[in-house]
């Protein structure tokens, strides 16, 4: 029998000065939530997901995406991209036929109900794409996207990982996927803060999300993530 526990989202110490507040813990699926994605043959929000790796840009990472039951499995290995001399990525995301309006939750958070067998992996990220979101420096994607980091603790139970929307940024690095790192050319990316509001999610863009993606990015190593649902919640 599955059970669900709740975790706090923790960030490395050198990130704390960039984040407006500590991650929060969520009650188990309160009434002020909106389901965005679920998985399995009877899931009410099932849409097609596609897995993409960095070999499209000369990398060596390998991942896969399956839905064996009422949850999805995202697993693989992220390796060093020879041309960048930095870890690459694996990603899994919806097609552009997807649509979600979470504008009412702009002051709240994204909730990923998940578990992992690789809690030590530090490259898990989530992105929300939409027309109108600014492209990050050097971005060549069709849509701009807000991206945020998350970690999942060890354990057999599914855990609600809460990522405040204020921890997402449109200004993330192609080299790391992070908003707090500096590119080799010296460009310093910006995280969402009161001083850098132009990279923060807005209710307007959150009202027209047309793609969501899970990432294993910027960290070399094996990863295994099982996702039961993705939702939005009020603060």
Kindly describe this structure.
The strands form three sheets. Strands 1, 2, 4, 5, 9, 12 and 14 form a seven-stranded mixed sheet that branches. A five-stranded antiparallel sheet has the order 3-8-13-10-11, with no helix packed on it. With 235 residues, the protein is an all-beta fold. The protein has one helix and 14 strands; from the N terminus they run E-E-E-E-E-E-E-E-E-E-E-E-H-E-E. 44% of the residues are buried. The longest helix has 4 residues, at 203-206. It has one helix at 203-206, and strands at 4-6, 33-38, 49-53, 62-66, 72-78, 80-81, 86-87, 89-94, 109-116, 124-130, 144-149, 158-164, 211-217, 221-233. The chain starts with a strand and ends with a strand. Mean pLDDT is 86; it is low at 1-29.
